[in-house]
Amino acid sequence: MMYRLNTYRHRLGRVMRKLAIVTACLLSSYSAFAQDKADSLIIYFRQGYSIYEPDFKGNQQRMDAFVNRIHDIQKDSLLKIIKVSYVGAASPEGARANNEILAKKRAAVMSNYLRNRISFANNAVESMLRTEDYIELANLVEASNMPYRDEVLEILRTYPTEQMVDGVLRNPCKTALINLRGGQAWQYMLKNFYPSLRRFKMLVVVGIERPSYDEPAPAPVVEQPAVVETPAPAPEPAPAPAPTPEPVVEPTPAPAPVPAPAPVWAPQMLIKTNAIGWGMAISNLALEVELAKHLSFNLPVYYSGVDYFKSNTKFRIFGIYPEFRYWFKERDGWFIGAHGGLAYYNLALGGDWRIQDTNGTTPALGGGLNIGYRMSLSKKHPRWKVEFTLGGGVYDVHYEKFVNEKDGPKAQGSVNKTAFALDNVGVSFSYSIDLKKRNK
Question: Residue ranges per domain, the chain?
Answer without folding.
Answer: 33-207, 268-434
